[in-house]
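ping. complex inputs:
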Amino acid sequence: MVHTSLDVVDEKISAMGKALVDQRELYLGLLYPTEDHKVYGYVTNSKVKFVMVVDSSNTALRDNEIRSMFRKLHSSYTDVMCNPFYNPGDRIQSRAFDSMVTSMMVQVC
Amino acid sequence: MEAAAGGGCGSGPPLLLSEGEQQCYSELFARCAGAAGGGPVSGPPEAGRAVPGAVTAAAGTVADLFRASQLPAETLHQITELCGAKRVGYFGPTQFYIALKLIAAAQSGLPVRIENIKCELPLPRFMMSKTDAEIRFGNPAELHGPKAQIPYSVTEKNTFKRMDDEDKQQETQSPTMSPLASPPSSPPHYQRVPLSHGYSKLRSSTEQMHPAPYEARQPLVQPEGPSSGAPGAKPPRHQASLIRSFSVEREPHDNSSNYPEEPWRITEEQREYYINQFRSLQPDPSSFISGSVAKNFFTKSKLSIPELSYIWELSDADCDGALTLPEFCAAFHLIVARKNGYPLPEGLPPTLQPEYLQAAFPKPKRECTLFDSYSESMPANQQPRDLSRMELSIKDMADFPVPAQDVTSDDKQEQNKARLALKSTVDEALPKDMSEDPATSKDSNSLKARPRSRSYSSTSIEEAMKRGEDPPTPPPRPQKTHSRASSLDLNKVFQPSVPATKSGLLPPPPALPPRPCPSQSEQASEAEIHPQLNRAPSQAADSSPTKKDTPYSQPPSKPIRRKFRPENSATENQEPSSTVGGPASTATGKPHTAVQKQSSKQKKAIQTAIRKNKEANAVLARLNSELQQQLKEVHQERIALENQLEQLRPVTVL
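pong. complex structure:
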């Protein structure tokens, strides 16, 4: 599922020449009938992609909330990047990052 | 008695040791023997007093241990006699075990007799008292935490626990606290407060590793109560040498200063060491170490990458990808602690927080900056006292890493060389440093995707630099001939500059005034006008023919000076000379004309100096802008590279 969404993201990226920092996609239709998740994508200036999958049974999150969540994600990610020992592409093991993500998820649920 | 003592390896009939006792005793013995350099465990060879060949416990450490048992002196004496140490003259395993057994007996109230060792006795108790003169044992209020979490060490042989002083007296707690591997039959568990610290220097690595992880797991991080600063006093010499050779894992070198309940507190010696290391990576102590530089450096410590990553996460408080001095010290300290077996804390301990360290830093920082400024300002020995101070600080630093003397001597040599070399390269180095520092700080700023609060610190650094620049100038001034001009402003300018020299980069201090000055000043000194025109710095000026030697260095300082009071200096120079001329006119003919000549010469000299300064100014400004430009270009390259990297990577970010 995530891979399909990634494909879509790539599609969109190549389509648009500018404004990479977009947050889009409501994939309601694409997914299996049983699943009704919404997938949000976010791309940074350095082509790092964030994909967020949300259960649609939640009261639909407002777009603003999604955006703010992505912003927080982005900021935590840059913090993780600042660590010279972190290799881009590794699994992120930063606790601060994890705690931020967890808090975000809790907040949503 | 002798026969009993001659029970050989301790398992003979006369000496019955239970399993637990055997374990404890052997460990104790190992510790004491480690002191002798030939411990049964693979002790590190750093022991000072090695008794070649024999596996013996050094008398000194043994004596300490016995004293720690808090038995009266004569009892100890009796015990020593009984166990046969006096017979053989040293503490072999047999003697040692017997002695321990006797101590246990004594502590239980039994008379000290050799027969007692046949009984089933509780383990001897050794308490470390705070007031113990031996710093090594001076480890009182250890972690309070351990109390509750002792069970950790159930599996470990090590019996060291840190107990509070109060606990020592509470036997009731002992059962719960005695995770000793030994069968819990012995209520008086081993309360050896980190006696280990006493032997820290000599401890074998295995012993170290054991206690540390378990005990440290307990709220090590908790800011332990004040507990004595004794631990801090333990010179982390070994630690220094350990760190010094990052490539060599010398874990046995316990940085004793870490152990004392406050493993996260940095002692003075450690701090000095860290600062030295910082400066080796980054000459300006008020600037940052970039991430890659730090990464290379810390990688040498041979810790695993995830751990290093974790440490970085902890220590880089503002997450800017660069380490300031306090951040660097915190990271370094964490690494050292980790290497010595301490598990990493969950969060940055309060004593390692940058603010805390920063507050604690001023002095060392100042010393560092002093160092830098002096090394750069070598040329004019105008402030002999400063130099002497610097030398003192050099010596201080040199004192600490005793084992690593080569390093310190290297430092010294570096400093000396730097000093000498700097004479001529001062200005070059200066502008570069100055421009680089703001550049690096800006660099770290722009590196981030979003601006961080770093700008705050960078501006403060720049301010400090500027502040540093302005005041210092005066000393060079003296120039204007007048030997000791007492022109007010100049004097004032000069004075603040002296303390100001402490701040970071200082322009080549007191480059001396233009060449002609010395000669003129000499002449002036002859004419009796000095008093008025004399300036404190000028003394140096007079005596230092180095002025001529460093004409080049003058302009840089001058420009800075100029900034500070461009007209003033000029006018002041003019004034004193004019005032000199004034009174001179009233003087007799000879001095009169001499003075006039002087003043005119002075004026010319001043003007030439001004011109030179302006030129230097322009050069520096150009250099600065060029460097900035380069920086931007590099940035862009980096961004481009990152983009490429992203594109090349398979898309599996999340």
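The interface with chain B takes residues 2, 6, 10, 44-51, 74-75, 78-79, 81-86, 88-89, 93-96 of chain A (CB under 8 Å).
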